Amino acid sequence: MPEELALLVADVFEAAGLLRKTGEAIAAAEGQTQARWQLLSAVSEEPLTVARAARRLGIARQGVQRVANDLVREDLADFQPNPDHRGSPLLALTPLGRATLQRITTRASTVHQALTADIASADIAAARSLLHRLIGQVHRYEEHDASGLRRPDSPTT
Question: What is the DSSP track for the chain?
Answer without folding.
Answer: -HHHHHHHHHHHHHHHHHHHHHHHHHHHTTT--HHHHHHHHHTSSS-B-HHHHHHHHTS-HHHHHHHHHHHHHTTSEEEE--TT-TTSPEEEE-HHHHHHHHHHHHHHHHHHHHHTTTS-HHHHHHHHHHHHHHHHHHHHHHHHHHTTPPPTTS---
